[in-house]
Design goal:
This protein is mainly alpha-helical. It has 2 domains: 15-134, no CATH class; 136-275, no CATH class. The protein is 75% helix and 3% strand. The protein is built from 9 helices and 2 strands. It has helices spanning 15-35, 37-59, 64-83, 87-107, 112-134, 138-163, 178-198, 205-233, 248-270, and strands spanning 167-169, 173-177. The protein has a two-stranded antiparallel ribbon with strand order 1-2. Strand 1 and strand 2 form a beta hairpin. It starts with 14 loop residues before the first helix and ends in a 5-residue tail after the last helix.
Length: 275
């Protein structure tokens, strides 16, 4: 039986750039989440606008401005509704926005489904994150989300490139390995359990471990999905905003999925099923 291909020797030359970018971005995100309210909403809105532009440039190269504007306005409207505690309206806006973005793309001779998916891909996690931060104990849960996501990312990157070994999905993402996959999962579980215990989350250890596991899987699943999408659009990175990473979407691809897991876990916890 033929053995799986092994990854090539990792190039550490961009490690300094990645660390510098994280040093600049992480405090901005943490301070915005700490302060919450309209400041956090503005931070989410700015991020959503950047993501809309990156998505439009990748998916609608003939008319990126029109598609980006449609997606950005849709996400901003949904975020505003979420901030005003009108979640049913926010979800209705997301659904309507997908149809509107599809119509805009079709009128610009671009692929309607790509524009519609972009609106959902960006808006749903943004609304979920806005709700999570505004929920009871929202700051702790938002920070737990960051801990799970960032731990999975960092551990997958480090363990994958130190241990190397067989590739996870070489046709889609040549540098990802099974070692990185399992390293990321272990780190996300440890982060969730540790955070719950240290910060008094009133979350049982098994429930925290399960949330960390699912959050880690979502983080790496989101990363792999973005790799699939970039191959579909024929690009290497979503942009060049962040040195060492590429675009903002390259940085938050896992977070976009992990926030859905943590938001659902928060709903379950509020119902008293995971205490």
């Amino acid at each position: 039986m033929a053995s799986l291909p092994r990854v090539r020797r990792f190039d550490w030359t961009n490690l300094g750039e990645r660390a510098m970018s994280a040093t600049v971005l992480a405090p901005v995100v943490l301070i915005g989440a700490w302060l919450g309210g309209w400041l956090f909403l503005l931070l989410l809105a700015a991020a959503a606008a950047v993501l809309a532009v990156e998505w439009a440039v990748m998916s609608a190269p003939q008319a990126p401005a029109r598609v980006a504007t449609a997606i950005a306005l849709a996400v901003l409207a949904a975020l505003l509704a979420a901030e005003l505690k009108s979640l049913p309206i926010a979800w209705a806006i997301v659904a309507a926005a997908a149809l509107i973005c599809a119509a805009v793309a079709r009128g610009a001779a671009e692929r309607p489904l790509d524009a519609a998916f972009g609106a959902i891909y960006i808006a749903v996690p943004c609304v979920g994150l806005a709700w999570l931060r505004s929920s009871p104990q929202g700051l702790q849960w938002t920070f737990m989300l960051f801990a799970v996501t960032w731990s999975a990312d960092v551990a997958a990157y480090a363990s994958g490139n130190l241990l190397k070994g067989p590739k996870l999905w070489p046709r889609i993402s040549p540098n990802k390995t099974w070692a990185g996959f399992f390293g990321g999962l272990l780190a996300s579980v440890a982060a969730a359990v540790g955070f719950a215990l240290v910060f008094g989350m009133r979350l049982s250890v098994p429930a925290a471990a399960l949330m960390g596991l699912l959050g880690g899987l979502a983080t790496m699943g989101g990363d792999l999905l973005e790799s699939v999408l970039k191959r579909r659009f024929g690009v290497k990175h979503s942009g060049d905003l962040i040195p060492g990473h590429g675009g903002l979407l390259d940085r938050v691809d896992g977070l976009l999925f992990a926030v859905l897991v943590v938001a659902v876990a928060r709903l379950v916890h509020l119902a008293g099923w995971a205490s």
